């Protein structure tokens, strides 16, 4: 048999249940806040920081971040992990030579394209996909040459980062292209020689 409760008893029981749920929620919120605060002391950014050629990189999730002034440059690799990569290279122009200009881009690797775009876009008037020559242009893209800033990222058997006039050729094995692109970025930022 079911008990019969008066309105007063029902209201009292409802208030008690509301109070219990409220106390549980307050305890959970307080413990969560305490956990976040305690975790922030135990895992400070300094514990995931790397000094590379006088520049400070810090780990942020799966990325490595370099803050220079008001700008953040984001990399997939710790710059120290790229030191042993072998490639042919010649001197590159630095970031100011790209500043407030259009950068033309031709890339066979989407990760590398994204790295170029996300790191250089704040300095450029725009980034435009283009073709270096007509015979290899499959899309309806503008045809450009090395008289304008142009980055060409393509697959090759040998790893290279070469500057020819205003063109930069980043070439390498498919699995190395994004690493070579990061080395290119480090070089034009003056972080790496």
Topology:
Elements: H1 7-42, E1 49-52, E2 55-60, E3 63-68, E4 71-75, E5 88-89, E6 102-107, H2 110-120, E7 126-129, E8 150-155, E9 160-164, E10 167-172, H3 177-188
Parallel strand pairs: 5-9, 6-7, 6-8, 8-10
Antiparallel strand pairs: 1-2, 2-3, 3-4, 9-10
Helix pairs in contact: 2-3
Termini separation comes to 86 Å
Percent of residues in helical segments? 25-40%
The profile of the biggest β sheet is: 6 strands, mixed
SSE class: alpha/beta
Alpha carbon gyration radius: 27 Å
Strand content: 25-35%
N-to-C SSE string, H for helix and E for strand: HEEEEEEHEEEEH
How is the largest sheet built, in terms of strand order? 5-9-10-8-6-7
The beta-strand count equals: 10
Mean pLDDT: 87
- Total number of distinct structural domains: 2
Low-confidence stretches: 42-46
From the spread of the alpha carbons, the general shape counts as elongated
Count of helical regions: 3
Description:
The chain has 193 residues and is an alpha/beta fold. It folds into 2 domains: 7-43; 86-188, no CATH class. 31% of the residues lie in helices and 26% in strands. The protein contains 3 helices and 10 strands; from the N terminus they run H-E-E-E-E-E-E-H-E-E-E-E-H. The protein has a 6-stranded mixed beta sheet, with helices on one face. It has a 4-stranded antiparallel beta sheet with strand order 1-2-3-4. A hairpin with a 2-residue loop joins strand 3 and strand 4 (71-75). Helix 2 (110-120) packs parallel to helix 3 (177-188). It is elongated.
A few lines on this structure:
The chain has 193 residues and is an alpha/beta fold. The protein is 31% helix and 26% strand. The protein folds into two domains: 7-43; 86-188, no CATH class.
